[in-house]
Design a protein that fits this description.
Layout (H helix, E strand, L loop, with lengths): L6 H8 L10 H14 L5 E5 L2 E7 L7 E6 L4 E7 L3 E7 L11 E5 L10 E5 L10 E7 L9 E4 L5 E3 L2 E4 L2 H19 L5 E7 L7 H9 L7 E9 L11 E5 L7 H16 L5 E4 L6 H7 L3 E9 L14 E4 H11 L1
Parallel strand pairs: 3-12, 3-13, 13-16, 14-15
Antiparallel strand pairs: 1-2, 2-12, 4-5, 4-9, 5-8, 6-7, 6-9, 7-8, 10-11, 11-17, 14-16
Helix pairs in contact: 1-3, 3-7
Length: 334
Amino acid sequence: MKTKPGVLPLFRHLTSVPTAPFREASVSRKALEWIHDNLGKRAKVRRVRGGYIVSYRGAGDGPALCLAAHLDHPAFDLVTITRRGATARLRGGLPPHLLTGATIEAFAAAPKNNRPLARGVIGPRPKKEGGLWPITWSEPPKDGAKLDFAVLALTPCDIKGDWLHSRSIDDLLGCAISLEAMRQLAAARAKVNLTVLLNRAEEVGFVGALDMIRSGVLSPSDSYLSIESSRKLPGSMPGRGPTIRLGDKATAFDPNLTALLDDAAAALRKRGAKVQRLRLTGGTCEATAYLAFGYESGGVAIPLVNYHNGWGADAVAPEMVRLSDVNGSVRLLV
């Protein structure tokens, strides 16, 4: 069945399988299906070790604007597996103080859907940082099941009013926003060059982005925008539009790119749209990695509730963003 255009149909498609650091094969397959159906020959796809490079060249030779997003979300690697349970290593920044007693779903390395091979409950927090988490099966795996990783048992995708709920908004929504922006520009035959970078393993240290940088597949003439959801802060609140990211916890971003985004935001505000601007110091994003190697970099963020499934909450929970902010981000980029 052909996939549909639009941010939300694409996001539903991406979240129809689970993802984790270094376990992005299934979600990558979903992204490639959508690219084939909705971009076709208007875009070229290159697979590299760090992820995928999707290119639309409407202006011929010359520099491109690159929208960078990542295909993974924090999860667990399963280390030992028995009939009674498993041990797991946390990959990425889930809130450890909320994990004990939470339910997980376990999958093979490249699952075809969201039906888990087993379910379990997370045990006490390890005494040592980086230690293994115990898991007790509530629904044990069948004989012969090849378990590989586990995710929190939260909704893949749900809409309630103007709120989008998901276990993995960060950063599958950034992937969806970036690819939909490319689709709209390609459909309009826009005289621009746009690249979308779908990076692997961002949650464990920008692994995909750094590999693309170090392997020389990125052009130093291009400009790079990190497209992510970032935890809400005063000045970057849900329902008040996407946020032009002036920097992150580690770095202030490129002023030239920020000025271009400010110009686009001013034009949108004249038509009644909402856009925010703030240095988001709740964490770091891939723009910092690009800047560290001399690339012109900036960012656009969607204000996020329940960052990484629970920071700022009393229990693990789906991440949440406002649909109006999602739609506004595409308008800002296009």
